[in-house]
Design goal:
Layout: E1 6-9, H1 11-15, H2 24-35, E2 39-42, H3 48-57, E3 63-66, E4 71-74, E5 80-83, H4 88-98, E6 104-109, E7 112-115, H5 120-129, E8 133-135, H6 139-142, E9 149-153, H7 156-170, E10 175-180, E11 183-187, H8 193-203, E12 211-215, H9 221-226, E13 229-232, H10 238-241, E14 246-247, H11 252-264
Parallel strand pairs: 1-2, 1-12, 7-8, 12-13, 13-14
Antiparallel strand pairs: 3-4, 4-5, 6-7, 6-9, 9-11, 10-11
Length: 268
């Protein structure tokens, strides 16, 4: 029996390669881990609808951690196990603060992506996520209920300045993180991959030291910290790697496979 009973894997720039595909090595490692009774799931900032096809490709039948942990949904039944949306007043304050700067805003509500208008940023995001953006005009007028998440797309220095401005403003009331250098995400304070992974581990009666988490970016750090073994793939930035218990030599999905082969299958 493997020491690790639950493995959570990030998608973009971790399990997925630069062509947004899952390598055969990664698929084989995941399937072999499951044959040994290990629970394997996905933990992603993606929408549920954008994560589901990849879960189906891997034949995952467990709850998926989506929207950075804001939405935990059963991959087979679609049952929502946990939903932690952004309180409406804060979501509106975020949008109102960003709008004068002209940065692109993604708004997620009921697993649908809404934007003010189609832009090069929304076109690029659609290609990555394979989720169509719905233009609705003024987002402040449109938004009348708690959204699952708000995402800003801009250049990294611009986002870093937003972090400096918004973190003191919202304090513990909003979780703010970068999922990619040009993606800044605002979510419920408990909507982190770490909290969601703890929720799943408790559901299945698994201790945190029996959990392995694999990621590559800042939004993975909470689950890396929670897990008994936190793995960062080799293509991650140096300042992310320093938080890992183990950094893979292989990149992207082959790095995830390396971690499973080494620590779950115990092949080397």
């Amino acid at each position: 029996m493997s020491k690790y009973k639950l493995v959570a894997i990030d998608l973009d720039d971790t399990l997925l390669d630069q062509d947004l595909k899952i390598s055969e090595r990664a698929k084989k490692a995941i399937w072999r881990a499951r044959e040994r009774g290990v629970l394997v799931t996905l933990s992603t900032g993606r929408m549920y609808r954008a994560a589901l096809p990849l879960a189906q490709e891997l034949e995952i039948d467990l709850p998926l951690i989506t929207y950075q942990g804001a939405l935990v949904v059963n991959a087979l039944s679609g049952e929502i196990l946990q939903h932690l949306p952004v309180p409406l007043e804060y979501a509106r304050e975020i949008i109102a603060g960003i709008k004068p700067l002209g940065y692109h805003i993604n708004l997620y509500l009921n697993d649908i992506l809404y934007v003010e208008k189609k832009t090069p940023e929304s076109d690029s995001y659609e290609k990555i996520s394979r989720a169509e953006a719905q233009p609705v005009g003024d987002l402040l007028k449109f938004l009348q209920e708690d959204p699952t998440k708000v995402l800003i797309i801009a250049k990294e220095p611009q986002l870093d300045r937003l972090i400096e401005e918004f973190k003191p403003r919202f304090g513990v009331n909003i979780h703010i993180t970068k999922s990619k250098p040009n993606f800044l995400e605002f979510s419920h304070p408990m909507a982190t991959k770490g909290h969601a992974l703890a929720f799943l581990a408790e559901k299945y009666g698994i201790k945190h030291e029996e959990v392995m988490a694999i990621g590559d970016s800042y939004n993975d750090l909470e689950m890396i910290a929670y897990a008994g073994l936190g793995v960062i793939v080799g293509n991650a930035r140096p300042d992310v790697k320093k938080h890992a218990d183990y950094v893979t030599e292989a990149l992207y999905g082959d790095g995830a496979a390396e971690a499973i082969e080494k620590f779950v299958l115990e092949e080397y």
